[in-house]
Amino acid sequence: MSEVNLITTLQNRGLIFHVAHENNLKTLIKNNSVSLYCGFDPTEESLHIGHLLPLITLKRFQISGHHPIVLIGGATSLIGDPSFKHQEREMHGHDNIDCWTEKISKQVSYFLDCHSNNKKALLLNNNQWFSKMNIISFLRDIGKYFSINTMINKSAVKTRISRPDQGISFTEFSYNLLQAYDFFILHKEHNVSLQIGGADQWGNISSGMHLIHRKTKQEVYGLTMPLLTQSNGIKFGKTELGTIWLDSKKTSPYKFYQFWMNIEDSSVYRFLRLFTFINLSEINKREEEKYINNGIINDKIFLARTMTRFVHGEKKLLAAERITEFLFFKNISHIRESDLQQLQQDGIPSVQIKTIIDLQEALVLSSLATSRTQAKTMISANSISINGIKVNKNCLLKNQEKLFGKFTLLSRGKKNHCLLCW
User: How would CATH label the architecture of 229-331?
Assistant: First the structure.
């Protein structure tokens, strides 16, 4: 990817929602190596799948020879960004924030080159400057540049003010100024000329641009990426079962893999453009041929493999594929104990079993059947399998049914499973 075409390439991939001073920004990155940043508030111990888009965009800039900075909001996370939140965020203590900051910093360093001498990514924490600032200095030196009239008309604030059941606290209201000051400090000390973020961050980014212009008379830039929803309206990164985390201890690689496998067909090629580094011409060709030889299914598998490898690495991708083979194709020949532990973590429902039971009772305990009578009918109908093997009569579950002496997979049909954990 050449510098001259970077912004155009991002646009062609659907990665730009807002961009300030577009032509000037294109000229800047054509002729210069720029420093840019994106902020992440450590309000949890892990980033989630919704954070991938800004991380990948930072990586695209780094590949093109620019200098990315990741700003961890050690201070701003104590306040909480109100942007398009229906109610005030839960306040977290310093100990939690410090712990989560360390974990998220490690996650970020996995996606960006933080070690090479040439344009390595820099990780900073805004607590470095906010911990040294007092409220009077902040109000005098920063607050005077902002009009209350303008601030209350920003979409993120206006939405909350219009809801009498929630409103917005002064604490949250001040967040916009804090993030603006982040941009100013990074511009002053690290020559940052561009801030990127999700579309919900445009109000905060534009405030930073305003502050820098008022204090320095210099032009800086802002760029946001779309907040993604699937065609069914579900916010990207969320499922009915909760957030898809990047930490494999919170969301197993198998569940991560299945997230991509289960996206709607209409989203496959858009997500290939947004989240992968595959050439656009190849993606366009795949889309043109999507109805040939199960093309759309193969491309969805390709997307799931690419994203799981990108986030979790080759070994955990292979584990996710082994589990998929085990569940959907009843292939237990290569399954490992660690794979079954992934399933126990969050892959499928599981129940703890302490004594020897028969199959009918196991089906009831696992909620695959509502009663022993229904379980008997299912067994007779040849719709139940143990570890991928069909059974047609009731039996005791003995040691030979326990994989690694610990696990038994019960299945009703192709899609309903439960893991018995002994």
Answer: Orthogonal Bundle (1.10)
